[in-house]
Amino acid sequence: MTTATLPILEAAVLVVVAPLCGVALAVRRLRGAAPAAALFTAALTVSALWTVVALGWSAGSGRALVSYATVGTIGYALAALGAWSGSVLRDPLDAAACSVSIALLAAFSIFAAGPLAANLPTPVVNLALIASPIVSAASAADVDLFRTDLLYRISPLAHGRFDYPAWFTPLAAYGMLLMISLAGTARALRKGWL
Amino acid sequence: MTRSVFVAVSWCVVLFAPLSAGQRAGAGAGGLSPATRQELMKSLSSGAAYLRAQQSAEGTFDANPGVSAVAAAALLRQPGVPRDMLMDAGGKRALDAIVKLAKPDGGIYDKIIPHYVTAVSVMALVAGGRPQDKALIEKGRAYLAEHIWDEGEGIKPNDKWYGGIGYGGSDPNRRADIISLEYALRAMKEAELPANDAAWEKAIKFLQRTQNNSETNDQGWASNDGGFVYYPGFTYHSEGGTKSYGSATYAGVISYAWANVKKEDARVQAVLKWVRDNYTVDENPGMGQKTVYYYYLVFAKALQAVGQPVIVDAKGRSHNWREDLAKKLISLQHPEGYWVNTDKAELQDNKVLVTAFTMQAMEAVLQ
Question: How far is CA B350 from the centre of its chain?
Answer without folding.
Answer: 17
